[in-house]
Write a structure and sequence with these properties.
Radius of gyration: 17 Å
Order of helices and strands: EHEEEEHEEE
Helix content: 10-25%
Number of strands: 8
Number of helices: 2
Shape: globular
Structural class: alpha/beta
Largest sheet: 4 strands, mixed
């Protein structure tokens, strides 16, 4: 079964020098990303990861034909519970008060047949939105599988 490993986002030449530190601060403080590096890259980029092993990361790379901002493209992040969604939303709103370039769309709770989803979208400097959500299955609609991030058990 596949799982998310990374996403490359292209930005305009000069973006990393001009906005890289502000973007990293936002991604770190709001979404808990950590900085990472890829040794040997010969072009400006920013790499951020969700865990110490970089098992999931965003690769933000400069390119002469960057991704445009005109769409609803987004990357979804599943949180453990609604409180975690609210905590990220609070941090995003705090950033928005300091920097009006932070865009937020709070969609509240989506009540669908099989799930309740607490979600909001946030975008800052990048050409995509981040969809921060917690999906709760309704009784009788529980998924057959559940993702867990657990320490690896090494053989003795």
């Amino acid at each position: 079964m596949m799982r998310f490993n990374h996403m490359e986002l292209t930005v305009a030449p000069g973006f990393v020098a001009e906005n890289g530190e502000a973007l990293y601060a936002f991604l770190h403080e709001v979404l808990d990303f950590e900085r990472s590096v890829f040794p040997g890259l010969d072009f400006p980029s920013l790499v951020v990861k969700t865990d110490q092993d970089a098992s999931q990361f965003l690769f933000i790379a400069e390119h002469p034909e960057p991704l445009g901002r005109a769409s609803e493209d987004h990357l979804g992040f599943q949180m453990d519970d609604n409180d975690a969604v609210e905590q990220v939303l609070t941090r995003a709103r705090d950033w928005q008060r300091r920097d009006p370039r932070v865009e937020i769309r709070d969609v509240g709770v989506l009540d669908l047949e099989a799930t309740l989803t607490r979600a909001f979208y946030v975008r800052y400097l990048l050409p995509i939105w981040f969809d921060v959500q917690h999906i709760q299955a309704k009784r009788g609609h529980e998924p057959a599988f559940e993702w867990r991030f657990m320490p690896m058990r090494l053989p003795a």
